[in-house]
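Why do we care about 3D structure at all? Because function follows from shape, and shape follows, mostly, from sequence. That is the central idea of this module. The next example makes it concrete: a single protein chain, its amino acid sequence, and then its structure expressed as tokens.
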Amino acid sequence: MKWCHVPVAGHALLAVADADGLIGLYQLLGSKETTYTLQPFASFALSKQCLALSLDWSTGKAERTSHQPLKIISSDSKGQLHLLRLDEVGSGLHEVATWQAHSFEAWIAAFNYWQTDVVYSGGDDSLLRGWDTRAPGAPVFTSRSYDEHVLLWDTRNMTQPFADVPVQGGVWRLRWHPLQSHLLLAACMHGGFSVIDCQQATEKKQDTCTISVSHTLPRSLLYGADWSWLTFCRQPEAQPSSHSGFLPSSGPGAATEDETGDQGPAPPCPDSPTDDGSGSKERTPPRPSTEDVRKGSSQLHSPRTKICVCDSGMEADLNIHLLATCSFYDCVLHLWGWESS
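And the structure:
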């Protein structure tokens, strides 16, 4: 599922690709004074007996002119790509083109955000392909690239990547950091997840990327990973740490670990409400139980660090990051805090 980056008919719009082969659009309705709800807005059936596997919006990075229609690219379990157009006045989704892109499941499809006539797709045939949607009959390029490596490409030259990072696992999801554009998060199936620093490659045009941190999850396959858009602050009483590693899950429910390895409640965030019996309000985070850990609160700790969501008047610490991962077999959603050096 993906939110549209621009309002549609005055409302936020969520698109969902589901196992019945449908692309469904939902409007977010409500206000701060009432409960928000998602109401059906439009839907489109891709084809019979297929699963819708991915979708992307054509909102792009460049400024969109008013006459440009919004489009969606979607992929399915038959290896097809579907280009749809959204009529913003209410008549729904309409098919622009459908074509066979891969021999097996087409797991992903995405627009080139700087040139939205171009889309990319990846499939179970181990191929990465580019397509010009104005003439989608044949791919613009084809690369066999499913090899447990993260590759960075210059789209003007798709004959070979300009950077190559081995990650020791099948790369299933990639997400750029929303605030620090040189950080790339990779979900790598049995290889866990990695944060890749691409600053040398993207800014200095060198063919070097480094893995800043990585972590594997035993007996699970990690398929999903994404960054939080929240910014975080360090507690005023926390000691600066030169350690680069994972922090406890951030926010009021986080806990710290002392030097003996015992886990105890962390100090509350500034101005957060709890009741200490004296009439003042502070929030004391609960100690995570074994059940909490099993459900996804498991975490790696760095020494005696506490972070919280930035409040007004507080300075953000851009070295503190929050990310989430989801894994197969154990069916767990993990929330991680990472402090970069």
